[in-house]
Sequence to fold (70 residues):
Amino acid sequence: DDYPSIVLGQLVDSVDYTRVYFKGQIEDDYGFSSLKMITKIQDQVDSALNIQILPGLLQQDFFYAFDLAN
Fold:
């Protein structure tokens, strides 16, 4: 039984600096039921966003676009 793993990359839009794109991969030998992105401002939770994944897959990629202007 291995620990779950996550690899995350970030890219800021070169035209609209308020848009940030995330691409990642999650892996676990039992699969996942959900994935959330938690945003914090000065150690305070600002929001918890559900990232759409396919439950039960052992490994999968995910993508998310975040607009800092909103």
In short: The mean pLDDT is 91. The beta strands are 5-12, 19-27, 36-41, 44-50, 59-67.
